[in-house]
Amino acid sequence: MSASDSVPRVGVWLIGARGSVATTVVAGCAAMTAGLHPPTGLLTETPPFTGSGLPALSSLVFGGHDTVDCPLPKRAEALAAGGVLPHGLPTAVSAELAAAEREIRPGGPLPGDTRSEEDLIAAFAADIRSFVRRCRLQRAVVVNVASTEPAPTGDALPPSSLYAAAALRAGCAYVNFTPSTGLHHPSLRRQAESLGLPFAGRDGKTGQTLLRSVLGPMFTQRALTVRAWSGTNLLGGGDGASLADPSAAAAKNAGKERVLADTLGTTPEGEVHIDDVPALGDWKTAWDHIAFDGFLGTRMVLQTTWQGCDSSLAAPLVLDLARLAARAHERGLSGPLSELGFYFKDPVGQGPAGLGEQYARLVGFAERLREASSGGSGFADGRDGPSVEPADGSGEQW
């Protein structure tokens, strides 16, 4: 056995594996592992997480599902041309991009696909299991970074829930970084908890809502009355195109509204508008207009503008979540990882909505992982998680 084989490797199976976020994740992890760039934006590389037993960045192996066929290296070149990735990075990490590309499998359902839900779940789960065996992985985490889908209207499982069911059937921890349904479908949530697997989500908090989760508590703590809070998002790329669908935009806005309701204790007037501007590519501008009352009813306004690149903001969070979910699985944790609410607009489980309180819970989680890593009693059960390979027939309940 070589030295590299002696280090346990962890798989990160990305749903939407050829998209902007996934490509930035793979290229960014390779760049940091090679020492080409510092881990800016990666909380799991900061002092509070030292010694928590998280898998090393160099131990992560990438694969995934996607319905598009643009190869990952070519996608990385396009992102570099658009200023999302540093110039020359796709060439510098071409081997890592090619390796991840070889592990990407066709997703679905595609137009005209006649496979049943069971057929799709079984096929997706088989892909994940094969990835684990082929790459000799200790375990794998499935992370949904695909474009937002509309909320389901019937009993049928939407694509995000098919992938989530496949992740659980394959014995993997699951993270939903999108506002899509995933494990929130009523036919999946209870079964997910019964399988003893950890899961987290949903909808990564990268920009406008990140700022809202800071400003909302500020108004509450200063006893200032917010009368109205309106916002506008201008964005392009795949997200802009998918969110041009009003039903997909409604799913996205639900998390933004929840943050305000939870931090202010009431829902102010106003709403968020999302506009697709293809010329912006992977960049977006988010504007908020906040009308509030001060002492003696004095009317005042706060306006904020957030300009950033969603892929660059999301990628370090995806890496954080994959490492934390893998470690939670290793420690035998199951059910919703509410301590990871810091990362989400609409987090699963019970927890605070303000960013400061969420960060404190996250740091506490890292401390408990550290105690567990050193043989302490960081968790009540103290068990290591099961191997990623499920027993034969483990998927029958799906």
From TrEMBL:
**Source domain of life:** Bacteria
Q: Which residues are the signal sequence here?
A: none
Positions of the Myo-inositol-1-phosphate synthase GAPDH-like domain: 207-311
InterPro entries assigned to the protein according to its UniProt record, in alphabetical order: Myo-inos-1-P_Synthase (IPR002587), Myo-inos-1-P_Synthase_GAPDH (IPR013021), NAD(P)-bd_dom_sf (IPR036291)
> Region Disordered: which residues?
373-398
Family listed: Belongs to the myo-inositol 1-phosphate synthase family.
Q: What is this protein called?
A: Inositol-3-phosphate synthase
Organism, by scientific name, is Streptomyces doebereineriae
